[in-house]
Design goal:
Blueprint (H helix, E strand, L loop, with lengths): L1 H4 L8 E4 H18 L3 E4 L9 E4 L1 H17 L5 E11 L2 E10 L21 H7 L5 H11 L3 E8 L3 E10 L2 H4 L24 E5 L3 H12 L4 E5 L2 H10 L4 E5 L7 H10 L6 E5 L4 H10 L3 E4 L4 H13 L2
Parallel strand pairs: 2-4, 8-9, 8-10, 10-11, 11-12
Antiparallel strand pairs: 1-3, 4-5, 5-7, 6-7
Length: 317
């Protein structure tokens, strides 16, 4: 959020499939809806909506997942619907993404602070449902950076709400011929030329957002990534499968990253383990190394540094 406020957050413009991003969000959150007995319905992509656009798939994922998480959180019965549509304004094409729920709705007196950072529509909601009140504010800022906006399209107390997230679709880049004389172009690389081609990575991370973000970083460089959602899963997977390197989040449920790393080292596991944590203090770094990690990287993860560190430990072996 701090990066957004000082306009330091970079938005990528790379080719993506809207339907693939949408399905990835739904796949990760469907079980949460089903646990509450909610139906999660995704409308078919209309033929008028371009599936292939140039934008930032990670930020689109964040916006959609924030809206879906809120819809699931504040809906006790009924359904949640997601639908995409498109519209043209002059030469510009915009993608509209609607998330409609049958939840508690929002009262008129609480609408004015709905998108304020660290604020929920009603303070009692924090006590009842948890959360930081950052999701909508951050999502609106991300939509703004992608040339669009996020608005509450409709709401009724006790009957639900509909949020409309809009992004500007860049179609021109898909039509333009590529410069085959550009030596540094990543898009011209064959799979075999990618820096981490064939490297098998175990990512131990419980946050769905971080799972998607880090996996995108690595698969774009040719790596093969498997995900463990807690330290115990990471311990089992590391011993049963042949990975080149383990990325170990420190704060995880069931078994934390320190304990998982210590267990692996005790049974003779000698592959590189990189700690991922939000803590940058020297004491935390020393604790990671003391637990058996080879390196300590802080979040938010720097893409180039992560790739460089993986290469350093994998290719020197």
């Amino acid at each position: 959020m701090s990066k957004v406020e000082v306009r330091k957050l970079e938005i990528e413009e790379i080719p993506l499939s809207l339907s693939s991003v949408l399905m990835e969000v739904v796949r990760l959150l469907r079980s949460s809806a089903e646990q509450k007995g909610l139906a999660l319905h995704v409308a078919p992509l209309p033929s008028s909506v371009p599936d292939r656009i140039c934008s930032d798939p990670t930020r689109i994922y964040q916006v959609l997942s924030n809206l879906l998480v809120n819809a699931i959180k504040f809906t006790h019965r009924g359904k949640i619907e997601i639908a995409l549509s498109s519209r043209c304004v002059g030469q510009d094409c915009f993608i509209d993404m609607r998330v409609k729920d049958t939840g508690i709705g929002i009262s008129q007196e609480n609408l004015q602070r709905l998108f304020a950072p660290f604020s929920q529509a009603d303070n009692s909601l924090s006590r009842r449902f948890g959360g930081t009140g950052l999701g909508l504010a951050l999502s609106r800022s991300l939509c703004d950076l992608m040339g669009g906006d996020l608005v509450l399209e409709s709401t009724e107390e006790g009957a639900g709400s509909t949020f409309l997230a809009t992004i500007k679709a860049n179609l021109q880049s898909l039509r333009e011929p590529r410069d085959h004389g550009s030596q540094g172009s990543k898009s011209l690389q064959s799979e075999e030329e990618k820096y981490l081609f064939g490297i098998r990575v175990l990512l131990a991370e419980d946050s769905p957002d971080n799972q998607v973000l880090i996996k995108r970083f690595l698969t774009a460089e040719g790596a093969l990534v498997e995900i463990a959602r807690n330290g115990l899963e990471a311990f089992d997977m590391a011993l049963k499968q042949d990975f080149h390197i383990v990325l170990m989040d420190i704060q995880m449920p069931v078994l934390d990253g320190y304990s998982a790393t210590q267990r692996l080292r005790r049974v003779g596991y000698d592959k590189p383990i990189i700690a991922l944590t939000a803590h940058a203090l020297k004491e935390e770094q020393e604790r990671s190394l003391g637990a058996g990690c080879n390196e300590h990287l802080t979040k938010p993860i720097n893409r180039q540094l992560l790739i460089s560190v993986i290469g350093k430990f994998v290719f020197q072996r």
